[in-house]
Structure formats: C-alpha cells, structure tokens
Automatic annotation (TrEMBL), chains A, B:
<feature type="DNA-binding region" description="H-T-H motif">
    <location>
        <begin position="29"/>
        <end position="48"/>
    </location>
</feature>
<dbReference type="InterPro" id="IPR001647">
    <property type="entry name" value="HTH_TetR"/>
</dbReference>
<feature type="domain" description="HTH tetR-type">
    <location>
        <begin position="6"/>
        <end position="66"/>
    </location>
</feature>
<protein>
    <submittedName>
        <fullName>TetR family transcriptional regulator C-terminal domain-containing protein</fullName>
    </submittedName>
</protein>
<dbReference type="Pfam" id="PF00440">
    <property type="entry name" value="TetR_N"/>
</dbReference>
<keyword id="KW-0804">Transcription</keyword>
<dbReference type="Pfam" id="PF16925">
    <property type="entry name" value="TetR_C_13"/>
</dbReference>
<dbReference type="InterPro" id="IPR011075">
    <property type="entry name" value="TetR_C"/>
</dbReference>
<keyword id="KW-0238">DNA-binding</keyword>
<dbReference type="InterPro" id="IPR009057">
    <property type="entry name" value="Homeodomain-like_sf"/>
</dbReference>
<dbReference type="InterPro" id="IPR036271">
    <property type="entry name" value="Tet_transcr_reg_TetR-rel_C_sf"/>
</dbReference>
<keyword id="KW-0805">Transcription regulation</keyword>
<dbReference type="GO" id="GO:0003677">
    <property type="term" value="F:DNA binding"/>
</dbReference>
Length: 200, 200
DNA sequence: CCACGACTGGACTTGACAGTCCATATGTCT
DNA sequence: AGACATATGGACTGTCAAGTCCAGTCGTGG
C-alpha cells in the first residue's frame, strides 16, 4: 500500500469510528462513512472486504484510543492517592459529556458481542490489553510499597475496569454521574483495603 | 381493547422482547416480529404507532422481567450471608449462558440511550425501580441489625447494580465469568464493610 | 516514456425494511 | 337481525443500504 493509500484508509477508519461512536454500528451506513471521509464506494471496498472488516478496524482503532487515554492517566501514578486522579479525570470527562457516548470499547462490546464472534473477540482483546496495563500500574504500586505484597494486581485491575464499565453504562442511561462516582469510589476503597499496613 | 386484542398485543410484545434480546433492536425487523408472533402488519400498527412505540413496550416488559427475577432472589434475604445467594444465582445464570445476552435492561440502555430520548428515559426508570427494590432490601437488613445504622441503602444499591452491569458487560464480551465474580465479590465486600460491628 | 499495479469515481443491482391502505372478519349491544 | 367498533389479512410503496462493476486516473520502476 502506498502512502496515499494508507492515508485514505486511515481517513476512512477515523471517520467510521467517529460516526459509530455517535450513532452505533447499526446506525452508521457506508454512505455516511463515505460522506464523512470524502471517499467513494470503490475506495471503501478497495481497503475493506466488507462492512464487517471495516468494523474490525474501527474496534482496533478505538482500543488504541482508549489505551492511549488511559496511559496519560496511569503512567505517572505512583501512589494510591494518585489513583484517585484517575477516577477524578474519568468522572470529569463523563460529566462534561453528560454520559453521552459511554466507553468506546464497552458500547462496541455490548452491540456486537452476540452478533459477530470476530468483533466480540477483538473487543475482548482490547479489554485484555487494558487490564494488563492497569495491572502493571498496580504492580508498580505494590513494588513501591503502596500495596500489600499479597495484593493481586490482575484481579484488582479487572474489578476496576468492571466497576468503570458499569458506572459508564449507568451514566449513559441515567444522564447522571452519581452511580459512576459511587461505583468508582467503591473500587478505589477496595484497592485501598489492599494497601500496605501503615500507608493510609 | 377487547380481551382478544390484549392477548394479541401481549403476544407481539413477548415475541419482540425475545427477538430483541437475542438480536438487538437494530437486528430485529417488524417482519421478524410478525413471523415470531403469528400476526400481520395491520395488527402491529393497530396496537403500536410505530416501531419506537413497540420498543417502548418492550423496554417496560423487560423491566418487569428483571424486577420479577430480582424479587425472587431478594425477597427472602434477611442477612448479609443471604446476599451472597443473590450473587451466586446471578453468576450461575450467567455462566450457564456463557454470558450471552447480558442484562436485558443494560443492553437496551447501551443500544438506545444515545439514539432515543424516550427509550433512554424508560430504561432509566427501570434502573431506578430496581435500585429502589434493592435499597429497600438493604434497609431491611439495616433494620434487622445486620448493617450499621450509618449505612446508606440507596448508595449501596447503586454500587451493587453498577458492579453487576459492568460484570455482565465483560462476561458478554469475554465469554468468561471471571470479571463478573470479581466485581460482585468486591461489591459484597463493600456492603460487608458497612456491617454492624460484631455481625461478621 | 510507458507499462503496470495501486487507486478513485460513481452508476447500478438487489434486497430489506418501515410504514400505508383498503378490504374483510369478529363480536357485542340494542 | 343489524349497526358499529374493534380486530385482522395482506398487497403495495418509497426509501435506503450493502455490495458489484467498469471505466477511468495516478505514480513509480524499468
């Protein structure tokens, strides 16, 4: 693929990701994508076998987006108190959007998991990667003596992500950030309960 | 509406709810509903103004279904240990289905919240009702001296539901019950941390 | 410069879907 | 019985979406 081709492909994925985030997979037609990316049908079908292939690329793009955002929040976290900054940033972002949109990965998972095995697996990979990054951040905290040596970074990471997904789903449907705050605070408290004695 | 009419209407809603639970709103056509309920177009449009109106009825039906299921689990809970039965039943049901389907209310919320304000509000009402029932169960526990007088039943209920939603979403996309278990155990531990001194 | 593969434009086909329309049936009340 | 509201059958329309096809253009290596 030439540089021009790669740019076109990227433009298509970018546009599709935006439309799908706003309107869902079912609510986004290829004609919408063409308009938003200034491309033609032949271009879409030149770079993607069919709509499902495009969706697959969108899932991977959204995974990258989520991981990048999480990295900006987690990379400099060195203490349990720092983890609260993660919570606050997510709550602030959700509040700013009134919950609209939700998690780019979570909404895709909910819409596609039971409809396309391929899509489901891709979203699951995204969550897996996310959990790994979060776990390694927690492992760092444990190494720094913030967390008890018996704390399980992998399990804690899964709980944190689960709490976040539930909170975002409720924020999306209630247009309120109340449940998100409660569930994230619960998760933080849970991590805190695995703090090394004397740290808190 | 005559009794026969009411029966027809109920058959339509029932069939639509089943199809939508399996295939999503976008993946369910009115022709599908007709076939599954043995009705004709005129009947659909006799009882519902348009597809959105039918979806609204489906949301209310699924709300009833969820509340009824939750009632069977919660009505006889009188202790914190009893609450663990609630967790176990949900995990068992999810495991049996390999996570497929998810929460009838949660999946509808995720698909519709940003697409239809009316649908969003209906799903939000459903969650609200659910939270109320769960909170009154927790309040009973508090009255029975299981929970500390300072425990907040409403907040605890919201956390429990949020954790459940996140766990079900992850179960659906990973086809694993691991995150669901972790997040529900975390929520139970959180409730336990509000137990009356000496109960645990 | 020219040949060939990568790339692009856009018309066209096919099918599905929401919603309309009118004719007919059913049942109840008088 | 018969009038009238409720209920039902099913053909029809218009729209929109996915996917196909072919005629071109671009750009780079030989």
């Amino acid at each position: 693929m030439t540089a021009r081709g790669a740019a076109t492909r990227a433009r298509i994925v970018e546009a599709a990701a935006g439309l799908i985030y706003d309107r869902g997979v079912g609510g986004t037609s290829l004609d919408d994508v063409m308009r938003a990316s200034s491309t033609s049908k032949s271009q879409l079908y030149h770079y993607f076998a069919d709509k499902d292939a495009l969706i697959g690329a969108v899932i991977q793009a959204q995974t990258c987006r989520v991981l990048a955002f999480q990295a900006t929040l987690l990379d400099h976290v060195e203490t349990l108190a720092g983890l609260r900054g993660w919570r606050d940033a997510i709550v602030a972002a959700t509040e700013a959007a009134c919950g609209v949109g939700g998690c780019p990965l979570g909404t895709l998972g909910s819409e596609l998991a039971d409809r396309s095995e391929n899509a489901r697996a891709l979203v699951a990979e995204g969550f897996q990667a996310w959990e790994l990054r979060l776990a390694s951040c927690l492992r760092r905290l444990r190494e720094h003596g913030e967390l008890d040596p018996g704390a399980e970074p992998n399990d804690l990471a899964a709980s944190l992500i689960g709490a976040l997904q539930g909170g975002l789903l409720l924020a999306q449907t209630t247009r309120t950030v109340r449940s998100l705050k409660l569930v994230l605070d619960m998760a933080l408290e849970h991590v805190g309960s695995r703090a090394k004695a004397g740290v808190l």
